[in-house]
Amino acid sequence: GKEKTFDPSFKGPIKKRGCTDILCCLLFFVFILGYIVIGLFAWLNGDPVILLHPTDNQGRICGLNYGDLDLRNKNNLFYFDLTRCASAATLINLQCQTTQICVSTCPNTSWTYFPDVAKLEAARLSHTSHDCDFQDIQTIILSGKCAPYYLPYAPVVGRCIPAIAVDSLNLISSADASNTTITYQSLLDGTAPVKLYLEARAIAENIFADLTVSWYWLLGMLAITAVVAFLWIVIMRWVAGIMVWVTLLGIIGVLSFGVWYCYDEWNVSLIKTNTTIIAVGFTTNLSTYLALQDTWLAFLIILAIVDAIMILLVIFLRKRIQIAIKVIEQSSKAIGWMISTLFYPLVTFLLVLIAVSFWAATALFLASTGSPIYQVIDSRNLTSLPNTTSLHGQTCDINGICPKPNVIYSTTYFHNNVIWLQVVAVFGMLWIVNWILALGQCTLAGAFASYYWAWKKPQDIPLLPLYSSFGRSLRYHTGSLAFGSLIIAIVQIIRLMLEYADNKLKTAENKVAKFILKCMKCCFWCLEKFLKFLNRNAYIMIAVYGKHFCWSAKEAFKLLMRNIIRAAVIDKVTDFILFVGKLIVTVGMGALAWAFFTNKFVSLLQAPTLNYYWMPIIIVSVAAYFVAAGFFNTFGMAVDTIFLCFLEDLERNDGSEEKPYYMSKSLRDVLGKKNKKAKKRKD
């Protein structure tokens, strides 16, 4: 279909808009269908319960019935040798390097295996180990069929961990199957992950309790944050110029004072000493250098050069700085007439959240897809028995019926094809997330462009400009947005692969390979930044002209290169304005939260009693930053759109009756431009 929309080359909405980059649009939809198929495959074949619940070495979940083996009354996982859970192999194989069995209750007494044959019979008679049938206790323990020791344990999230005090533990004489003494520190290392979980859970419970009594105060402060950020954007139309010029003159004043101070200290040092910096050499006493005339002369020269550069920049770029200020003021007015644009980042956030959640669920299900594969991770105990050899690394996949059942197996659900599906899922998530961000940029650009190209403001601004721009972007430019986001996603997946390779090479000794990898990471980081900048401006041109991605990117780049100094000035001025805004909102709301939750306003408001008063302060500060970032990113998009439209207006129109300027009167005054027979308009 075709739709009429604005065209800056003329005075009315007469240009027809059609679908762009159709092939890329079709490719995007086909990929999404494939992505959904991967998700369905994962959800139908995967079972993330096995990744979250206690599972023995044979892949059986504790507490379930497997027909020939009923584990419904055995809900706890017992580790034969908990000290081996602290090894690095545990992280690599995602499983503790010891035999694990499901038990109904955790042991509540102490027992240890002594490889002294004279004591074996007494040990056997008093032994009450779980799930062990003793005929030859020495052979069974050495083969890994039974725990060589155990202590009083307590179930924690379905895992048995030591439940005895430090003092009593040090009095226990325990040994593993190799007759290695089990110390408190070795058990502490083995139980560290579980104890860390317990500590984190206790803190999380306290934080949750704090949130239940303070959530309404937090929501109120976030509402205040939104109001403050909005007011900051609105007042930019009046204070942007003052803020920029005061800052620039303040920097020049500080530099000039530094020049005078260094000159004065240099004169004083001429009288005190004639020692040169070469004669002093290297010393850690900085006061020695500050007493030298060479030091103050160097400071004087550096500050004088920087001060002179700043003064020259302000003198020669004053008109461009003034243009940047006027563009920021016009952007503030545009948002004032289209307040709904400030809340569009919520739509982007929700869409991104859905995309990331779909990927996370798919990845979790994929990780548990297929039949388990058992790999030998410990066969050292068997080497002490007759006719046995090392089986480390051997695998089998017949539901745990392996050639040597008396070894310790690691259960994994990662097949080669599943790994590639995980890669595709990650790439799909990156592509879709970047497309959502591109949709937001194009939607906002279309809304702000409709403001700029309206002859009479606000009378000629289209009804529901944000909604109309969103519809145009979806209907006509899905393919172009998919094209741009595909390029970014490809670069990002390459960066992830480089990060993975860099992690693998951390222990390598090849310095050349490490250097090349670091250079590649730096290059692709720069490439991603440049492409995001180019795409952002390409989406603005797509919103204005309705052309395909390549044409829009080319024209946007050429337009900026023809006005590179103006572009650089407005970029830095805008960055400064947004930085100050984010800083004031974040620090201000953090200070307000601190004052409230520490009862500084006790005469006015009573803060709730909390376990950690600092947690709401952190939550408010972080949330305030993200709220401010959402508002100011919209403001930044308005500035970029208005600026690009201003450059197009300046190049395509000449102020004649046939081609009048659409820029505001304040911008025309800065440039010394005027419209012939200009119609009355409201700036």
UniProtKB/TrEMBL annotation:
The chain crosses the membrane at residues 21-44, 215-235, 242-261, 296-317, 337-361, 413-431, 576-597, 612-632. Belongs to the CTL (choline transporter-like) family. One of its GO terms (molecular function) is transmembrane transporter activity. GO terms for cellular component: plasma membrane. This is Choline transporter-like protein. It comes from the Eukaryota. Its main location: membrane. It is found in: Cell membrane; Membrane. InterPro entries: Choline_transptr-like (IPR007603). Choline transporter. It comes from Ciona savignyi. PANTHER family: CHOLINE TRANSPORTER-LIKE (SLC FAMILY 44), CHOLINE TRANSPORTER-LIKE 2. It is a multi-pass membrane protein. Keywords: Glycoprotein, Membrane, Transmembrane, Transmembrane helix.
